[in-house]
Design brief:
The protein has 467 residues and is α/β, with parallel strands linked by helices. It has 19 helices and 9 strands. Helix 12 packs across helix 13.
Length: 467
């Protein structure tokens, strides 16, 4: 039986195949946003079995297994690892037309050389074959990244993190860059006032700075921002339901901060003002250092309180939200642009209804200081699939300059997720190849289009981030 993942998988024309083979397949990877563990990378961890590396922490698979009728005990609970793998294998045939079906077989092929279609009948055989390979040194975390030609890995890190593993990896000369990303979501997570105050106290303890007022709070954040910069950080990241850009005065923000520190609740309007002020101050710090600011917008998280209480956050119970976003995005960026303090920025939407909103918003604040200074990021989370990527690429092409796009990222917790870059590259080459075949793009420009593919896969990100 021929392999499902063949050389020209997803490439529907000879032109698409040439673009991929000649310009995409050998490009290195800059993974500028993911949720990998820096500790596992720095310590060159060896996974015990395929369940640990593939299923543990992967909420995409958890959602599919629950939908397929698998009991929680056999997903995240006390069942043994082989049982959990069997339940996943039995679920895979039911994931057809879900990106998990493609990802699963790409990963089995690229890492383990397995062509078979995973199912309940061959689960034990594949489990044993993968586990045998995982015991070899070639399957340590660092070697897995090297195998995929990864040049840069940017993890997602709380401002209070000590970054010990990033610093350890830097000293070890591991052959690629492991860099932190400044993710200060906790600074505005004021809905849980007790947790927020505990975090602020931790921030104060780590920095040695008093946080008696809002200015002291920002000073402490700045000190951590400086520390991240010294460790090689060049990006910030924010995961928000929506952007906040309310008008406020300094006196109002000091008052709101005092109330929060006293354990008092803010009104909805006051909370929006406080978040707006914090985010604006953080954006100013990003500009001061020449960082790239990332904004992930539109997720409604932790919808299932039962699973949140038993498993915590990132349990696979988040979904697309329908928040109003255009006006606040415009106000936030305009406030910074009007003073010349808007840094390079990437915005990501989770609701596909916002595609054209985001694609046109970035065009409002390009200033000629750098190609593609304002970026609309690749299809994120629920949009990280063939249809979502194609729609993002088409909207970006229609509203902006696809040629200046900084391309794909994994946004993953799994060390086996890097074939998602291949998936994106195949989809990109197929789209452009089809345009050449139909005459929408000139066949005489295939070489130039090939260089565009190289830029989107690698070159644009390398230049944009300065690595």
């Amino acid at each position: 039986m021929p392999s499902f993942i063949q050389d020209h998988f997803l490439l529907r024309s000879q032109t698409a195949q040439r673009l991929y083979d000649n310009h995409a397949v050998n490009q290195p990877i800059i993974d500028y946003h993911n949720h990998l563990s820096p500790q596992l990378i720095a310590e060159d961890y060896q996974f015990k079995n395929i369940t640990e590396i593939w299923l543990k922490g992967d909420h995409y698979k958890w959602r599919a297994m629950r939908t397929n009728g698998v009991r929680e005990e056999e997903i995240t609970g006390a069942a043994d690892d082989q049982t959990k793998f069997r339940r996943w294998a039995a679920t895979v045939p039911y994931t057809m037309r879900n990106p998990l079906y493609h990802w699963t077989h790409l990963e089995l092929k690229r890492y383990f050389g397995i062509d078979a279609l995973l199912n309940e009948d061959n689960a034990d055989q594949i489990y044993a074959a993968c586990n045998a390979l995982l015991q070899t040194k070639e399957f340590s975390t660092q070697n897995l990244l090297r195998r995929m030609k990864v040049e840069v890995v940017c993890t997602t890190d709380d401002p209070c993190d000590d970054l010990r593993y990033h610093l350890q990896a830097k000293k070890s000369e591991i052959g690629f860059q492991l860099l932190p990303t400044f993710r200060p979501d906790a600074a505005i997570a004021i809905e849980n006032r007790e947790a927020w105050n505990n975090w602020v106290n931790k921030l104060s303890s780590i920095t040695g700075l008093p946080v008696y007022n809002f200015c002291g709070f920002i000073d402490a954040l700045k000190k951590r921002h400086d520390f991240f910069a010294e460790a090689g950080c060049r990006l910030s990241d924010h995961g928000l339901e929506k952007m906040y850009a309310s008008a406020y005065t300094d006196d109002e923000i000091e008052s709101h901060y005092d109330a929060l520190r006293a354990g008092e609740a803010l009104t909805e309007e006051e909370a929006a003002q406080f978040k707006s002020a914090v985010l604006n101050q953080l954006a100013l710090l990003d500009h001061e250092k020449g960082w790239v600011a990332q904004w992930h917008l539109g997720a409604i998280r932790n919808n299932n309180s039962r699973l949140l209480q038993t498993l915590g956050a990132d349990a696979g119970v988040d979904s697309i939200g329908d928040f109003s976003t255009a006006r606040e995005l415009s106000k936030f960026f305009n406030r910074l642009d009007s003073t010349g303090q808007l840094s390079k920025t990437i915005i990501y939407n989770l609701n596909p209804a916002d595609n054209e909103v985001f694609a046109t918003m970035v065009g409002n604040f390009q200033d000629g200081s750098a190609p593609g200074k304002m970026q609309w990021g690749s299809g994120w989370w629920f949009l990280d699939q063939k249809d979502g990527m194609e729609k993002q690429l088409n909207a970006l092409s229609n509203m902006g300059l696809l040629s200046r796009f900084v391309g794909m990222l994994t946004d993953s917790r799994s060390f086996l997720s890097f074939p998602r870059h291949e998936y994106f590259r195949r989809i990109l080459c197929n789209l452009l190849g089809n345009d050449i075949q139909t005459g929408d793009l000139p066949a005489s420009e295939e070489a130039r289009i090939g260089r565009m593919v190289e830029d989107i896969c690698y070159g644009n990100a390398k230049a944009y981030f300065g690595w």
